[in-house]
Amino acid sequence: MNSKIKITVNAEEKEFSLGRTVNDVIESLNIKKNSMFVVEKNLEIVPKEAYKNTILKDGDAIEIVGFFGGG
Questions:
Q1: Best CA proximity match to 46, nearest among 28, 34, 64
Q2: Residues 14-65: pLDDT tens digits?
Q3: How far apart are CA 12 and CA 56, in angstroms?
Q4: Separation CA 32–CA 43 (nearest Å)
Q5: Element (H or E) spanning 7, and its range?
Q6: Which run of H or E residues covers position 26?
Q7: Could you give all domains of the chain from N- to C-terminal order, each with its CATH number?
Q8: What band does 1 get if pLDDT is binned at 50, 70 and 90?
Q9: In what order do the strands lie in the sheet with 61-66?
Q10: 6 with 46: CB under 8 angstroms?
């Protein structure tokens, strides 16, 4: 049994150990918790309160989109 999964994060394939969550991916990318961003898993938005409980599976696609002010 393979203890690793491959997921796509913002169009880049990455490898994680089994049982990793959306929150683990965010932490691995050093994204600040107070940043304005949305996480999409397999084309569906993941609510912030579900990041720690959303376990990733081999082949999942994650998109992390940040919001930036400007003018």
A1: 64
A2: 999 999 999 999 999 998 877 889 999 999 999 999 999 999 999 999 999 9
A3: 15
A4: 23
A5: strand 4-9
A6: helix 22-28
A7: 4-66 (3.10.20.30)
A8: low
A9: 12-17, 4-9, 61-66, 37-41, 44-46
A10: no
Residue 70 tokens, joined? 């400007």
* Type of residue numbered 47: P
Tokens of residue 14, six digits: 């990455």
* Strands 4-9 and 61-66, bridge-based pairing: parallel
Reported pTM: 0.87
By DSSP bridging, strand 4-9 and strand 12-17 are: antiparallel
Query: Are 49 and 15 within 8 A, CB to CB?
Result: no
